[in-house]
Amino acid sequence: MTKNSVYSVGTTLQHPLVEKFGVKVTDRLDIMLKEEGYSSGIDNGCLVINLDKAERIARPHASAYNETMDFTLGLDTIQMLLVELKLRVNNPVNIRAKDLEDKIKYSKALIGSDIAISKDKVFIFKRSVIAQARNHISRLFCNKNNYKTLTVDEFIVEYDVR
Question: Looking at residues 143-162, what average pLDDT do you find?
């Protein structure tokens, strides 16, 4: 992803999951953050595709559901960005690489290839554990710079999610 890639509601709403299932698979970012315990009073109506909802709607009769990243959103570069909210995590060291890799793999399968998936993967942590989370994620993925560990505020600024 180039530094200039920013949120695009158009790319988000043109994704085949939205075209197939409609608004049932979308959520507002501020609502998802609140459900994860983020209480800064952010008022952000940015639409994202809730991958947990999409998994349940796409496979209504499944006996078990795959773990997916929390959401994806479209970028102005016509790519989808995968994002995982880890706002309830108090000890990031307990996060396993295999768990995150599986979430990424199942999310990619669910999203499909009609719109490219960004090489960047974003993990959002609360400010109080961000330093520890950055160190741990960096070690888990051998310092690959496409695994980004951000706070909510950093995410909003970096991807211009407004």
Answer: 91
Q: Given the structure tokens 């970028």, which residue do they identify?
A: 75
Quote the pTM value. 0.93
Cα dihedral 102, 90, 137, 44 sign: positive
pLDDT digits (tens, 9 = 90+) for 90-148: 999 999 999 999 999 999 999 999 999 999 999 999 999 999 999 999 999 998 889 99
Q: Interhelix angle for 51-58 vs 97-111, to 10°?
A: 60
CA distance 65 to 84: 17
Task: Indicate the burial class of 2 (C-beta count within 10 angstroms; 0-12, 13-18, 19 or more).
Answer: exposed
**What b-and-e string marks burial along 27-42, b requiring 16 or more CB atoms within 10 Å of the CB?**
bebbebbeebebeeee
Q: Report the DSSP pairing between strands 116-125 and 147-150.
A: parallel
Strands (DSSP E) along the chain, which ranges? 26-28, 47-50, 71-74, 79-86, 116-125, 147-150
Question: In 56-81, which positions are buried (b, 16+ CB within 10 angstroms) versus exposed (e)?
Answer: eeeeeeeeeebebbbbbbbbbeebbb
Q: How many angstroms separate the first and last alpha carbons of the chain?
A: 19
SS3 of the chain: helix, strand, coil, percent, to 5:
45, 20, 35
Cβ count within 10 A of residue 147: 20
